[in-house]
Specification:
The structure is a single chain. This protein is of the alpha/beta class. The chain has 2 domains: 2-148, Rossmann fold, CATH 3.40.50; 181-459, Dihydrodipicolinate Reductase, domain 2 (2-Layer Sandwich). Helix content is 33%, strand content 24%. It has helices spanning 32-49, 65-76, 82-90, 101-109, 124-134, 155-168, 184-194, 197-200, 225-228, 232-250, 259-271, 412-422, 431-449; strands spanning 2-6, 23-27, 54-59, 92-95, 116-120, 143-147, 174-176, 208-216, 273-275, 284-290, 292-294, 297-299, 317-324, 333-339, 346-353, 371-377, 379-388, 396-406, 455-459. Strand 5, helix 5 (124-134) and strand 6 form a beta-alpha-beta unit. Helix 6 (155-168) runs antiparallel to helix 13 and helix 11 packs parallel to helix 13 (431-449). The chain is globular.
């Protein structure tokens, strides 16, 4: 059975008064993140929600306002309209070194009245230096800071960075971006879990055998060796994204969907999460891709990609098994997995239920327990169950009920920016959550660095290493 469903975006309202129009200042405006993700997300938000915003680009490069406007217009793509034209016509560029207090002071002095949003579209180390420079600058009263992942390099550095940024502005004006939390299909976990008693009543350790959060990517390195070769799949995807998806999936029902209630609920999950059996070597795997074909593209081995240092042993595929040690989930293994250069893009959550207590005698053909698959990208909901076969009622057959979920109206970055522009941090990562995700993965990171976990290989274009046993 296949049906279509539309996933609504979180409703937000935007200020109508021109005195409250925020100014979005993009630090690192010439980077790939800005043109590929941030500006298209902004275009969707302005076009579909009529969001009001002033846009200012800033970076080290010497470009004039018109060149910057051309960059913005190209990034906006096919989207047009008076609101978008107003953003393009009104945007400007200010050359400034984001790590220089004098340059930052000069940049801020050029801004109009209203909330100021400083978006750090910069490498993490540069972002930290920029934040230190801002401690020497007087910020406008309603300044918001937007920081990209990874937030720190371990729990201690994340705590230190938390102290630094909260010297600049209060926690509720700090937006640590995880664009996965802006995916309409991730947000759909709220509806699937809490608006369906039939499902919510069986999502616990009495009924669930295992949970899998899988974030497969078909893209390879794509010229990002400078960042990725020092990061790897464990930090790039599991620490930064998969654990936050787990927080949404495993949390208790919040009283409301406001920022404090939702983030309190997800933070409680992260505090209860630990590596399975406290044995990172047994509960994790790592691998990297060799040469192969992904789609119609020939992909070189990771070690042969430009800018890669083969001696680092960076993994392009990582897996770890964790337990959420709460009354609801204790004893259920959560397997988190992500890899690059795989056969296809496939990001999903799979909940496998326990076997029935007993199959009546004479009923033949039982092989697999029920499964529910929540597709994040592509978006679909699939329930696999056992039914009597049409030819022989005493023989079981497997059937699937599937619903295609229409994508949200906004792209993930548009959804994240909606919260930033309205000052709603619900879909951003709170400081304590950032620390907890590092705390969870640190034992696995140490095991990887100490070579306590073998570095396996898989051909590009494959489904990755063969699956390991489930605890």
């Amino acid at each position: 059975m296949t049906t279509d469903a539309t996933t609504p975006d979180t409703d937000v309202s935007f200020p109508e008064s021109t005195h409250a129009v925020p100014t979005l200042v993009v630090l690192g405006a010439g980077g790939d993140l800005t043109s590929r993700l941030l500006l298209p997300g902004l275009a969707g938000l302005v076009s579909l929600r009529q969001a009001q915003v002033r846009l200012v680009g800033s970076g080290n490069s010497e470009i004039d306002d018109q060149a910057w406007r051309d960059t913005v217009r190209r990034a906006f793509g096919a989207l047009t309209g008076p609101e978008l034209n107003g953003v393009v016509d009104g945007t400007r560029y200010v050359q400034a070194d984001a790590t220089n207090p004098t340059d930052l002071e000069r940049l801020l002095s050029t801004l109009e009245q209203g909330p100021v949003i400083l978006y750090f579209a910069l490498p993490p180390k540069v972002t930290e230096r920029a934040c230190r420079a801002l401690t020497q600058v007087r910020l406008p009263s309603d300044t918001r800071l937007v920081l990209e992942k990874p937030f720190g390099t371990d729990a201690a550095s994340a705590e230190e960075l938390n102290e630094l940024v909260t010297e600049l502005v209060p926690e509720d004006r700090i937006f640590r971006v995880d664009h996965y939390l802006g995916m309409s299909t991730v947000l759909n976990l709220f509806g699937v879990r809490f608006a369906n008693l039939m499902l919510e009543s069986v999502l616990d350790s009495s009924h669930v055998a295992s949970v899998e959060v899988n974030l497969d990517e078909s893209l390879a390195l794509e010229g990002r060796a400078g960042y990725y070769d020092r990061t790897g799949a464990l930090t790039d995807m599991l620490q930064s994204h998969a654990l936050h998806v787990l927080g949404f999936l495993a949390m208790e029902s919040p009283s409301t969907l406001n920022a404090q209630d939702v983030r309190d609920a997800t933070a409680a999950v992260l505090r209860a999460t630990r590596i399975w059996d406290d044995d990172p070597s047994a509960a994790s795997r790592r691998a990297r891709y060799t040469a192969g074909t992904t789609g119609d593209r020939e992909v070189p081995a990771y070690v042969d990609e430009e800018g890669v240092d083969p001696t680092r042993g960076t993994e392009t595929w990582a897996e770890m098994v964790v337990e959420v040690d709460t009354w609801r989930w204790a004893g259920v293994p959560f397997r988190l997995r992500s890899g690059k250069a795989l056969r296809q893009l496939n990001k999903h959550v799979v909940i496998t239920f326990r076997d029935p207590n007993r199959i009546p005698g004479g009923l033949q053909g039982y092989e697999h327990p029920d499964r529910m698959k929540i597709g994040l990208d592509p978006a679909r909901l699939r329930l696999e169950i056992n039914v009597n076969g049409p030819a022989d009622p005493s023989t079981l057959e497997r059937v699937a009920m599937e619903s295609e979920l229409a994508p949200g109206h906004l792209p993930p970055y548009g959804q994240v920016l909606a919260g930033v522009l309205t000052g709603d941090p619900t879909l951003s990562v709170r400081g304590d959550q950032a620390v907890q995700t590092w705390r969870i993965v640190e034992p696995v990171l140490r095991a990887f660095r100490e070579n306590a976990v073998p570095l396996e290989e898989y051909p590009a274009g494959s489904d990755g290493p063969l699956a390991g046993p489930t605890p």
